[in-house]
Amino acid sequence: MGVLAFCTGATLYYLVFFRSQLIPRWLSVWGLAGAAVGLVAGLLVLFQSIAVLSGTQVALNLPIAVQEMVLAVWLIVKGLSPQATPKAPEPAAAELHPV
Contact at 8 Å (CB) between 15 and 32? Predict the structure, then answer.
């Protein structure tokens, strides 16, 4: 059941990344596809179609595992897209020095 929760969370996570363009679109799409395949693997294990930690399950979860590592390296090296992040408004001069 934990895998199903992870895949649901990952789908929402990569959907937000896709819509906000904080990371490249190809990386978001890879995450969405990997989460979908991981969800299929989790459901196959849940309904006992494949065994836990079988070669099939590992192969189905490999795309999301590799994508998570690529995302980690991407965020460490490049960070979030600066043009996609909103700028904080500048405070007015009266707010800086109250009378």
Answer: yes
